[in-house]
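A quick aside before the break. I want you to see a complete sequence-to-structure record at least once, exactly as it would be stored in a machine-readable document. Don't worry about memorizing anything.
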Amino acid sequence: MVGEARVHQRLDEALAAGVNPERVMEWLKFEEDARKEAGLQHPPAPGTLVYCDFGPGMARPEIYKERPAIVISTQRNWQQLCIVVPISTKEPRRRQRYHVELPCEALDPRLPQVRRWAKCDLVSHVSLKRLRGWYIGGGLRIFDIVPDELLAEVREGLLYAIGLAETVDSADG
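That is the input. The structure line, written in tokens, reads:
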């Protein structure tokens, strides 16, 4: 839902005005749902770090819940979809070439400094309505972009995930 301080402030204002607190909570929930529904208006650039709502409609072993992701598709301003690779703090059981470890310094320094992986085998084509910027507090959101080298590594991991890396390797050789 919305930030704790904002909820308390709005509730205090409503109580002072004599408004039913349950009614205010309903409105705050509606407001938050509407904000989430809005999502992004334009496709982000490749390499943009976003938060993606991977649920509902996803089922295990698919990636689910709201989590960070890296945009890997090119910008197509007429399209309301983009391709993302989810980021997880859960280390893969068996590391594969399609699991790309992300260095902490390549991500937002305000995030907890823990190991993270781009799970290229869980690539998803999602609506822009599922995406938003990284929340940094005070109602602000930012959009960081990973370095080009890291984006290239994630895209290579994607080729391994969909079985095309060998095709590209043999064409280069």
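Two observations worth writing down. The beta strands are 49-53, 66-71, 81-88, 99-102, 116-119, 124-127, 131-132, 134-137, 140-142. Residues 4-37 form one domain. We'll return to this after the break.
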